[in-house]
Specification:
The complex is a heterodimer of chains A (146) and B (396). Chain A is of the alpha+beta class. Helix content of chain A is 38%, strand content 18%. Chain B folds into two domains: 241 residues, 3-Layer(aba) Sandwich (Aspartate Aminotransferase, domain 2); 132 residues, Aspartate Aminotransferase, domain 1, CATH 3.90.1150.10. The chains are: A alpha+beta (146), B alpha/beta (396). The interface between A and B is medium-sized, with 29 and 25 residues.
């Protein structure tokens, strides 16, 4: 099979799927031309992510990584969420096919973008170096898809 | 639940007729056709009979039929042959289209690296090449025109007979990849003015790994596989006797029932198209006017094809898509891009290819399932969200 059981589980029964009307931070990465867009919503209280949701346009692994990434940041502090790596998401899913690794990169970037949005909205100072521009594939070589 | 197989353009189930014809040639009549003793000669006879059947089915002569490992090998051999024949006369120009199968496109790309020049004709929004475009592209140094009979992804049929006549009048070799046409629509190499034609057995209920190159008498083939004297010395390697016997049996069966199968398949396909067209912001890709019976290709805005396929698989429906994720690259299908679809729309494509063996109940189940899955995926799609909010505009 192309995907591990865990990937298929998170694809077929995605956790935290849906929009969030009262989100404290929203991050959207990827573009439709490349075939993947992820939007992550976070609710923050006392620096802790109390809830996370997502909507995703993309393949099975894009949906599964969104599901897993939102699971992994719920209940964590904002700073911990920033440390979420694509590798950790891949490991939690029992691996991804090589040509699907970029989906996990998108999931990491979507979480970071949501945190950045939360910082911006609340006037919290941060190190700009932490946030790479993942607006479009042309400028990004993080996923190795170029 | 029983699998609903709707990916017959990818491959088909081997028919009982073809399988029964093949079986004795594995462990009973297993001789090498090149051997002189009776066991070998029985295999040689079976192969000769198969050659006769294939020739009759496409209007060729027996000696114009070369058995290959499939459509891709036949495409390679036909194109390389024409290119090398052209080169000897200083003709280094080839004509094809933008939406050929990769067996053709990649062979042409290799020849480009070797100094050939290739014109890739536009196939327009309807997925049909224009005769006048072919005529305009022809130059004094054109060695070959290679245009597929019917497209594998969208099913559109090309004006092959007219293109063949044009090429013949100009003294240019004409090859057609007829993999998606043979066994499904009438093809006659003489009437259609075809010099070389590729076909593949597993697209018409024959076995995988066998195909045919038809090459008109008088055209000197270049070998792709060097070896013994098999296939008049033009294709080395001990022949795949069971495969060849199965190819002929499947082809004869398909050709004998072509009309009735087509009528039934077209009715099913039209029911499918009508049902799926009710999904908002969907479009049928390619002209339905010039079309093989079983193939239907559609795009649904705001969703991605791979997740659509996986969810259909969970509902026991086997189908195919031209999305990037199914192609293993960032780009969606070159065919869908060739007919002018934007990337974001092409990612949401679905190809359903049915046969006369499907039932109306299956078609209705496919319609219901695809409608549900598209709705579900749209409910979790940020692209659909923006389309609905009007922040981006609907294309279809």
């Amino acid at each position: 099979m192309l995907y591990s059981e865990k990937v298929m589980d998170h694809f077929q029964h995605p956790r935290n799927v849906g929009k969030m009307d009262d989100a404290d931070g929203i991050g959207e990465v990827g573009n439709a031309v490349c075939g993947d867009i992820m939007r992550v919503y976070i609710k923050v209280k006392d620096n802790i992510i109390t809830d996370a949701k997502f909507i995703t346009f993309g393949c099975g692994s894009a949906i599964a990584t969104s599901s897993m990434a939102t699971e992994m940041i719920k209940g964590r502090s904002v700073d911990e969420a920033l440390e979420l790596s694509n590798k950790a998401v891949v490991e939690a899913l029992d691996g991804l096919p090589t040509h699907k690794i970029h989906c996990s990169v998108l999931a990491e970037e979507a979480v970071k973008a949501a945190v950045k949005d939360y910082y911006d909205k609340n006037g919290i100072a941060y190190d700009k170096e932490l946030f790479k521009d993942c607006e479009n594939c042309e400028d990004c070589d993080a996923c190795g898809n170029k | 639940m029983k699998l609903i197989y709707a990916d017959n353009a990818a491959t088909t189930r081997v028919s009982k007729t073809a399988l029964d014809a093949m079986l004795p040639y594995f462990s009973e009549e297993y001789g090498n056709p090149s051997s002189l003793y009776t066991l070998g000669q029985k295999a040689a006879e079976a192969m000769a009979n198969a050659r006769k059947i294939v020739a009759e089915c496409i209007g060729a002569e027996e000696r114009e039929i070369y058995f290959t490992s499939g459509g891709s090998e036949a495409d390679n051999q036909a194109i390389v042959t024409a290119a090398l024949l052209g080169k000897r006369k200083g003709k280094m120009h080839l004509i094809s289209t933008t939406f050929e199968h990769h067996a053709v496109l990649h062979t042409l790309q290799r020849l480009e690296k070797e100094g050939f020049e290739v014109t890739y004709l536009d196939v327009h929004k309807d997925g049909v090449v224009r005769l006048e475009d072919v005529e305009k592209a022809i130059r004094p140094d054109t060695a070959l025109v290679t245009i597929m009979y019917a497209n594998n992804e969208i099913g559109t049929i090309q004006p092959i007979r007219e293109i063949g006549a044009l090429c013949r009048s100009k003294g240019i070799l004409f090859h057609t990849d007829a993999v998606q046409a043979i066994g499904h629509i009438p093809v006659n190499v003489k009437d259609d003015n075809i010099d070389m034609l590729s076909l593949s057995a597993h697209k018409f209920h024959g076995p995988k790994g066998t195909g045919v190159l038809y090459c008109k008498r008088g055209i000197m083939l270049t070998n792709i596989i060097e070896g013994g004297a098999q296939e008049r010395g033009k294709r080395g390697g001990t022949e795949n006797v069971p495969g060849i016997v199965g190819t002929a049996a499947a082809l004869k069966e398909s050709c004998d029932h072509m009309e009735e199968n087509a009528i039934r398949t077209i009715a099913l396909r039209d029911r499918l198209a009508a049902g799926l067209s009710k999904i908002p912001h969907s479009v049928i890709n390619g002209s339905m006017e010039h079309h093989v019976p079983g193939t239907l290709n559609m795009c649904f805005e705001g969703i991605e094809g791979e997740s659509l396929l996986l969810l259909l698989d969970a509902k026991h429906i086997a189908a195919s898509s031209g999305s990037a994720c199914t192609s293993g690259s960032l780009d969606p299908s070159h065919v869908l891009l060739a007919i002018g679809l934007p990337h974001e729309v092409a990612h949401g494509s679905l190809r359903l290819s049915i046969t006369e063996e499907n039932t109306e109940e299956e078609i209705d189940y496919i319609i219901k399932s695809v409608t549900e899955v598209v709705e579900y995926l749209r409910s979790m799609s940020p692209v659909w969200d923006e389309l609905e909010k009007g922040t981006i505009k609907h294309v279809i």
